[in-house]
Design goal:
By secondary structure, the protein is an alpha/beta fold.
């Protein structure tokens, strides 16, 4: 009888012969099989669970039997009784090889687990964080061994985990003795990939967590993630408190220019927001702030500099020099984050000028550098960041769209909140509008709508609502391609005389309160969308392409835009409508990927170095593109793919005949909307 047995691990298919009595966990590790363990084979963590298969496996040339493994022992029974063990599974650290075996390693027992992503069509992202836990049992000191606690901890890590050459900072050294004694010489240490001993916890600790921050000009968002599984445990967001110093980036830079040291006030404000969000998500998830050991941060260059306490004045004028465009790896305490004092913070690299770490995070999330297609990424916000290209070449620019898309500078505009109009449809005959508001699933013409919105009321129009109402007004002929409402003496019931111009009555409640879209509102959206489109056209000119094959609208606002209406307005160039998608909060997703996957950090650092920056402020053709892009959807660019999806009004219709042209010249009295 042979003293060896063949063991095959699934799904990897890795195989090897092992002496009888070998623990399955040891066999897996010797073959490089992906089996997780924090406790080092002491049946404490339960992460190394496997399933033993039974039967004949012709593909692998092996017959596997449950009898070819050791029986369930006391340690496994103790774990099963205390914490529960999935039926049919064994702890690989306690199961010994007694004969030929086929062993299945389930996804949750694998070290490199796939993180669930909205855009999984690009590639799989594995959970492989920068910091990992290791449980150790440390020899106690005695009179015959004068070595220090740190040396004996290092010896335990070497003998039990094969980890050598660690760097230990003073802040960890200050905690070692108390932790070892509190844990009765058993401890869990957090080790970063660059061989830094990051933290020490008494006894066995199973979980540590990370925070992924996306600092926008208007909002700050955070995801709390389990670093072992990649799972998002809680997410939250809040208004950026810097907004009281200015709604857009340049107004905040201007504040600093006019108030020396003013950047420190904004730094204090945004760091306060980061701490407030950390407290909220930790409370929601039921964890301690000290359990958070890793942080990633993305943001546009001004936000990036301000959170670091760097004066952003140089970003206020050409050549828009960054203090640094490199990735940063710093102590979280340097940002005054009140989490574990040993936590580290990784800030993704900025691209250049006003294209920041948030744009880099969008690239990491959406993966244009991995595609053959010519892809366009647009992070729509107060300052739009635009990336165009494929795996062959990437270009980027920023475009100052202003806050109109987020409801500012709009007469009835407001932030996205319950009661805000977010969806609009206009009847082509009556010109009356029906609306949907945030917090209610009913349209305004459906029974029960008034009762459903009684608590909040219909309070204003948010960004996605502004996009839809103006696009619908254009499609209904209420405005012409130049953005003029009604006019030339015409007046339909929803089209109301408003001084020397006209406005459109979008909604009127039972008390007679009205929400209107004014001529100035249309102009504000035209200016914003023209700036964005002009930036896109500059990149297309530089790339030498007339068409894009895929468009992703990113950002909290971009995620709520209907792609069809974005194209009707001319926010983006013509494309097959089905290829225009909402990317969700792609910057936040990129921050989360960098949080849970260390290889992604190296990847984006390499990609950013080869992205070519186009500076819109000094490009002579920007103004030409801007003027052409003021029209709906554009003065000269064709939109053949869009024309297949919607019926566009005829071009060149005079301002005073837009409605009539859309309705075949018929003049009829309209009922008030």
């Amino acid at each position: 009888m042979s003293d060896d047995a063949l063991v095959v691990f699934l799904p990897s298919g890795k195989r090897g012969n092992f002496p009888l009595g070998t623990p399955l966990l040891d066999a897996a590790r010797s073959l490089g099989v992906d089996v997780d363990s924090v406790c080092g084979g002491r049946s404490i963590c339960g992460r190394c669970q496997v399933r033993l298969e039974e039967g004949q496996f012709a593909k692998h040339g092996i017959t596997s039997s449950l009898a070819n493994a050791s029986e369930v022992g006391e340690a496994e029974l103790r774990y099963a009784n205390k914490r529960g063990l999935v039926e049919g599974r064994r702890l690989s650290c306690q199961t010994r090889v007694l004969g030929n075996l086929v062993v299945d390693v389930p996804p949750e027992s694998q070290v490199h687990k796939q993180v669930v992503r909205k855009r999984a069509d690009v590639r799989d992202i594995e959970v492989d964080p920068e910091v990992k836990l290791h449980y150790v049992e440390v020899a106690e000191p005695d009179m015959h061994d004068p070595s220090g606690d740190l040396r004996r901890l290092e010896q335990a890590l070497e003998s039990q985990w094969g980890i050598t050459g660690l760097v230990t900072d003073l802040r960890v050294l200050q905690e070692i003795q108390q932790a070892l004694r509190d844990g009765e010489w058993k401890a869990t240490v957090a080790v970063r990939e660059e061989k830094r001993l990051l933290a020490i916890f008494p006894g066995f600790k199973e979980k540590i967590y990370g925070l992924a921050y996306d600092i926008g000009s208007t909002t700050v968002a955070v995801h709390l993630c389990d670093l072992e599984t990649g799972q998002v445990l809680a997410s939250d967001g809040m208004m950026n408190p810097q907004i009281r110093y200015g709604e857009d980036l340049m107004s905040r830079v201007s504040y600093v220019m006019m108030n020396p040291g003013g950047h420190l006030k904004m730094t204090e404000a945004v760091r306060g927001a980061l701490n407030g969000l950390a407290e909220r998500v930790a409370e929601e998830a039921g964890i301690e702030l000290t359990d958070i050991l890793e942080v990633t941060v993305v943001g546009n260059p001004v936000m990036h500099h301000l959170v670091l306490g760097i004066d952003p004045t140089e970003l206020g004028g050409a050549p828009f020099a960054l203090a640094t465009d490199q990735a940063l790896n710093i102590w979280a305490s340097q940002l005054d984050l009140r989490i574990n004092p040993d936590a580290r913070c990784y800030l993704l690299p900025c691209i250049a000028g006003h294209v920041g770490a948030d744009a880099a995070a969008v690239v990491l999330s959406e993966g244009p550098h991995l595609r053959d297609e010519m892809s366009l990424l647009v992070d729509v916000g107060t300052n739009a960041e635009i990336v165009l290209g494929s795996k062959e070449r990437l270009l980027a620019c920023s475009s100052p769209t202003g806050p109109a898309f987020e409801g500012a500078q709009i007469s009835a505009g407001q932030r996205a909140a319950p009661g805000a109009i977010e969806r609009v449809r206009i009847d082509r005959e009556s010109l009356a509008a029906k609306v949907k508001v945030i917090g209610c699933d009913l349209w305004s013409d459906e029974e029960g709508f008034d009762e459903a919105v009684a608590k909040t009321g219909v309070t204003g129009i948010c960004g996605s609502g502004i996009i839809e109402v103006i696009a619908e007004m254009y499609l209904a002929g209420i405005i012409n391609e130049d953005g003029v409402i009604g006019g030339a003496g015409r007046q339909e019931d929803p089209i109301v005389q408003d001084g020397r111009t006209f406005s459109y009555r979008l909604y009127r409640d039972d008390d007679g309160k009205e929400l209107r879209v004014t001529q100035n509102d249309v102009r504000a959206i035209q200016l914003a969308k023209a700036a964005l489109y002009a930036g896109v056209r500059l990149l297309m000119d530089r790339m030498g392409v007339e068409q894009v094959e895929r468009i992703t609208l990113a950002g909290a606002f971009g995620n709520h835009i209907d792609p069809k209406y974005a194209m009707v307005l001319g926010l983006v160039p013509d494309c097959v409508v089905s290829k225009v998608a909402n990317g969700g909060n792609a910057a936040g997703t990129g921050a989360r990927i960098a949080l849970v996957n260390r290889a992604a950090r190296r990847e984006i650092e390499e990609v950013v170095r080869r992205i070519e920056k186009v500076e819109t402020a000094v490009e002579p053709k920007f103004q030409e593109h801007f003027v052409q892009a003021m029209a709906f959807p554009h003065k000269s660019d064709a939109f053949p793919h869009l024309s297949e999806a919607v019926t566009l009004p005829p071009r060149g219709v005079a301002a005073g005949t837009a409605v009539a042209a859309n309705q075949g010249g018929r003049r009829r009295r309209r009922r008030a909307s």
